[in-house]
Design a protein that fits this description.
The chain has 11 helices and 2 strands. By secondary structure, the protein is mainly alpha-helical. It folds into 2 domains: 1-23 and 141-278, no CATH class; 26-139, no CATH class.
Length: 278
């Protein structure tokens, strides 16, 4: 009972901070997502590298933070901060890769692959979040990001509920990585994601044609499943249950945003490809 209470309170605080920050405006969005980026990269590096190469890990995290800040600035203040200036974010990555040359223990050189993975897996998707909340004129819309999260959360809830009801003895989705996930849960999550997308369309939170809201929901659902399995694979490989302890009863931020790291970029790219926003 105590654990349930802790999980509930922790979840309420998490949702309040996240949704409240997105609604307050662009600066709170920037602060919250920058914090999420830094914490998730720290959790990933601790999980995969232990206490090794602290300086390189810090440099990688700083490089990811710089990328986020530059893309945020270019999106929030178009014309003031040009997208050409975003190219400056490449310099810390070049410096990071250059430092790997001076690694004394060449047997541990492969650990640098985990550093680069952390950048691609976490820093890049978080940096692209600015493309969701800003239009080409720099107008901010936190509702759009909240809508993305609602689709992802609806997918998770649907997958869990249908999986518990129908999937316990059914065919498993990827048993070697996540033994509890079933195909019944997958289809349940897909259905609830589409329903969520339709509701968001009718209440006016997703201001796109209904067919695109449905396609968006389907793509984000599929991407969220892969994102969940991708993080589960890392945790299973390293024999850990949670990526961190920042959220009592829930684990780390990486545990909470694993689906979003795949789903949000996929959703943003789809909408840009069909020219619904830039």
């Amino acid at each position: 009972m105590n654990n349930t209470l802790v999980r509930s309170l922790s979840g309420i605080v998490f949702l309040t901070v996240l949704i409240g920050g997105l609604l307050l405006g662009k600066w709170t969005f920037g602060i919250i997502f920058l914090f999420i980026l830094v914490v998730m990269m720290s959790e990933f590096y601790k999980m995969t590298m232990g206490g090794n190469y602290m300086r390189s890990r810090i440099l990688a995290t700083v490089a990811g933070a710089i990328s986020f800040c530059l893309i945020f600035a270019a999106s929030a203040f178009p014309g003031t901060v040009t997208h050409k200036m975003v190219a400056l974010s490449v310099l810390p990555y070049i410096l990071l890769m250059s430092t790997s040359i001076f690694t004394k223990n060449k047997e541990d050189y492969a650990l640098f692959a985990d550093i680069y993975t952390g950048i691609m897996y976490i820093a890049v998707p978080c940096s692209l979040a600015s493309l969701v909340v800003f239009d080409e004129t720099g107008v901010y819309s936190g509702i759009r990001m909240i809508s993305f999260f609602i689709i992802i959360w609806a997918s998770d809830i649907g997958a869990y509920c249908v999986g518990m009801l129908l999937g316990r003895n059914g065919k498993k989705l990827c048993p070697e990585i996540s033994p509890k996930k079933s195909w019944a849960g997958f289809w349940g999550g897909l259905a609830t994601a589409v329903i969520a997308g339709g509701v968001l369309y009718y209440v006016g939170w997703l201001d796109f044609p209904l067919i695109h809201c449905v396609i968006l929901s389907v793509l984000m659902n599929i991407a969220s499943v892969f994102g969940d399995l991708f993080e589960s694979q890392w945790k299973r490989h390293y024999g850990i249950k949670d990526s961190g302890k920042i959220m009592p009863g829930h684990g780390g931020l990486l545990d909470r945003f694993d689906s979003s790291l795949f789903a949000i970029p996929v959703g943003a790219i789809y909408l840009m490809m069909v020219s619904l926003f830039v």
